[in-house]
Design goal:
Elements (H helix, E strand, L loop, with lengths): L10 H8 L2 H12 L3 H5 L1 E5 L2 H7 L4 E6 L2 H10 L5 E4 L2 H4 L7 E4 L10 H12 L5 E7 L9 E6 L2 E13 L5 E12 L2 E11 L2 H11 L3 E7 L7 E8 L8
Parallel strand pairs: 1-2, 1-4, 2-3, 4-5
Antiparallel strand pairs: 5-11, 6-7, 7-8, 8-9, 10-11
Helix pairs in contact: 2-4
């Protein structure tokens, strides 16, 4: 099977088993800070629903996910989230003027064409954003034949990298074929999928070229021990210390 977001797999439980939502939320808070606009205006967030809930203690979080099942579970389990919307983030941002955007959980791994990135850039540039934070899988860690195993108190999982193909689109990316398995409680699931991995320098260059009014900074990944990095953008004409 491939990725299944129709409800047969409880991804929320899997996310919470293998990652630490409290730590992820604290990392994001450290990047966003406590400027007046962040505390006052909605923060558009993509990522793990539990992290959105934790961030809701500090911000007005608008949670966006393309899966109707993820949206339904987020509404049922995390009523403290300010608003939950079903949409692709690049589509949602075309008509939403949010000043702060967080795209986490390596959602960018699903952006596998130049067209998707072009649409994302146009959507972000449609309004003056003050802060944008996006995390990416790091292609430095993508090697054919690699088997990554990980354990947690409530389960274990594995990722096997079967094929890595370099794609020199704009931005360049490495498309990685994966066999993935998780065992959590009574749930045992395995599937094959494809994810996009990226080079730090390539993505820094793409961000600087696509978002010329922003200061671009590469930061550490949002998930501890994860093969990823983050890129933070700040609007140059809106100092973060005074807004």
């Amino acid at each position: 099977m491939a990725d299944d977001y129709t409800g047969s797999i409880d991804w929320d439980t899997i996310y919470n088993t293998f990652h630490h939502p409290v730590d992820v939320a604290e990392r994001i808070r450290a990047e966003l800070g406590s400027a007046k606009s962040v505390l006052k205006d909605p923060v558009v967030f993509c990522g793990f629903p539990k992290v959105a809930s934790l961030l809701s203690k500090h911000y007005r979080v608008l949670f966006v996910d393309s899966s109707s099942e993820m949206v339904r579970r987020a509404q049922e389990r995390y009523p403290d989230i300010y608003k939950v919307v079903q949409s692709k983030i690049e589509v949602f941002l075309e008509t939403d003027a949010a000043k702060t955007i967080v795209i986490s959980g390596r959602l960018s791994a699903f952006w596998q064409s130049a067209e998707t990135f072009q649409r994302l850039a146009e959507a972000i540039n449609a309004y003056p954003r003050q802060r944008v934070l996006i995390d990416y899988f790091d292609c430095e860690f993508a090697q054919p034949g690699l088997l990554a195993r990980f354990k947690a108190p409530l389960g274990d999982g594995w990722w096997r990298y079967t094929r890595c193909e370099n794609n020199r689109e704009i931005p360049p990316m490495t498309l990685v074929d994966l066999n993935i398995g998780y065992s959590v409680g009574d749930t045992d699931v395995s599937y094959s999928t494809c994810r996009a991995y990226f080079d730090r320098n390539d993505m820094e260059a793409w961000h600087k070229n696509a978002f010329t009014n922003y200061q671009t900074t590469i930061t550490q990944g949002l998930l501890a021990g994860d093969p990823s990095f983050s890129i933070k953008m700040m609007l140059e004409t809106s100092p973060a210390t005074t807004d």
